[in-house]
DNA sequence: GTCTATATGCTGATAGAC
DNA sequence: GTCTATCAGCATATAGAC
C-alpha cells in the first residue's frame, strides 16, 4: 500500500545512488533515466539539466544529514558527547541505503574545475553548517568563550573532513579512530588553553 | 642554455598542471596536447592513453613529494618536530609551480567510480608510504612502542587527509591549524597513554 | 495535463591512418 | 604533425498513451 513515488522522487533517488555512489562524470544521463524509469523530457522539465538534478539531490541530502545529526545530538548524554556525536551521525548516515562513497558534497566539488555557482553554494552551506553547529555545541564546554569555541569547531571540522577523505583512501575504515582523535583534541583544549 | 625538454617531460608537465590543477575529466586530451606542444601520436605511443599519462604523472609526483618531505624532516630540530614536519612539507609542496587544487592522488581517485588498477595502486602507495613514514618518525617519541607509534601515525594520517580535504572546502586555508591539531594529538599521546 | 517512447542534432573525445 | 573516422553523451523535438 505504498503510494507510487513521484517522478521527481525517483529521479532524486537515482541521483543519490549513481551520482554520489559512482561519481558525477562517470554517470550518464541515460543511466539516471534508466534507473529512475523516467523519460528524458521529465528530467529536463523538472531540473533543466544533469547539474540541476545534482544540486537538487545535494539539497535533499543536506536536510537528511541534518536530521541524522540532530538525532545523534539529542541522544548524547552530555555536552562533550553532544559535540562528539557528529561521528556517530556520520556512521549512521553512512549506513543508510543511499550511502555515498565518501562525501557527496566534497566528491561533487572535486569533480569540477571550478564548480558552478549552485554547487559551490551547496558545498559552502554544508561547510558553514558544520562549522557553526560545532561551534554552538562547543560553546558550553568552554564557558562560552567564543574564540575557544571557534578554534575547537575548526579543529573538529578538520577531523571530520579527514574522516571523510580516509574513506577514499581506505573504503572500510571505521569512524572510531576519528572519534578518538577528536576526543584527544577536545581534552587538550579543555585542560590547557594554549594560544 | 636549458636543454630542450623531452616530449615525455613536456607531457608530464602538462599533466601536472591540467589533470591535477583542473581535474582529470574536465581536461581534454586536446588541451594536454596543446599545452605540451606535441602531437596525439606522441602521447598514445608513450603512454597508451590519457589514463596512462595520468598514472605516470602521479608516479613522478610521488617521488617529488618524497624529496620535499625528506628535506623537511632533515630540517627539523628534534623528533617531535620531525614528525610534525609533514605539514611544513605540505605547505612547501603546495607552493611549488605544479600545485594541485587539493591532492593529486585523492583527487584522481575521487574521479573514478572504481579506479583502474594502476591508479588504485598509486593511491595505495601514497597512503602506505605516508603511514609507514609517520610510524617510523613516531617511534622515537614513544620509546619504540609499536602499537603507540601505529596509533599516532594513523591519527596524523587522518589529520593530513583532513588538511587536504579542507582545501576543497576552503581553497585558501592554511596548514597552520592542521599542525596545531596534530600537536595537540601528539601531546595527548605523549602525556597520558590512554587505551 | 503529465508522462513515455523514440528519434535526432550537436558537440567533443579517442584513437589511429596518412 | 595533420587529418579524419568512430563513438558516446547531452539536450531537445515530436508524437502518442494514460
TrEMBL record, chains A, B:
Residues 28-47 bind DNA. PROSITE patterns: HTH_TETR_2 (PS50977). SUPFAM superfamilies: Homeodomain-like, Tetracyclin repressor-like, C-terminal domain. The keyword Transferase does not apply. Keywords: DNA-binding, Transcription, Transcription regulation. Residues 5-65 form the HTH tetR-type domain. InterPro entries: Homeodomain-like_sf, HTH_TetR, Tet_transcr_reg_TetR-rel_C_sf. This is TetR/AcrR family transcriptional regulator. It comes from Nocardioides imazamoxiresistens.
Amino acid at each position: 500500500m505504498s503510494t507510487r513515488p513521484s517522478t521527481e522522487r525517483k529521479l532524486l533517488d537515482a541521483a543519490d545512488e549513481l551520482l554520489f555512489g559512482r561519481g558525477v562524470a562517470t554517470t550518464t544521463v541515460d543511466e539516471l533515466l534508466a534507473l529512475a524509469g523516467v523519460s528524458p523530457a521529465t528530467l529536463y522539465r523538472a531540473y533543466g539539466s544533469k547539474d540541476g538534478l545534482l544540486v537538487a539531490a545535494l539539497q535533499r541530502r543536506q536536510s537528511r544529514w541534518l536530521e541524522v545529526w540532530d538525532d545523534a545530538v539529542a541522544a548524547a548524554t552530555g555536552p562533550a558527547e553532544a559535540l562528539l556525536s557528529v561521528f556517530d551521525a556520520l556512521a549512521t548516515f553512512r549506513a543508510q541505503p543511499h550511502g555515498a562513497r565518501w562525501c557527496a558534497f566534497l566528491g561533487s566539488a572535486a569533480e569540477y574545475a571550478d564548480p558552478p555557482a549552485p554547487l559551490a553554494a551547496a558545498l559552502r552551506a554544508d561547510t558553514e553548517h558544520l562549522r557553526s553547529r560545532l561551534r554552538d555545541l562547543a560553546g558550553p564546554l568552554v564557558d562560552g568563550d567564543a574564540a575557544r569555541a571557534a578554534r575547537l569547531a575548526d579543529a573538529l571540522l578538520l577531523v571530520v573532513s579527514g574522516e571523510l577523505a580516509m574513506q577514499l583512501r581506505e573504503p572500510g575504515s571505521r569512524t572510531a579512530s576519528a572519534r578518538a582523535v577528536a576526543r584527544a583534541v577536545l581534552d587538550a583544549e579543555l585542560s590547557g588553553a594554549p594560544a
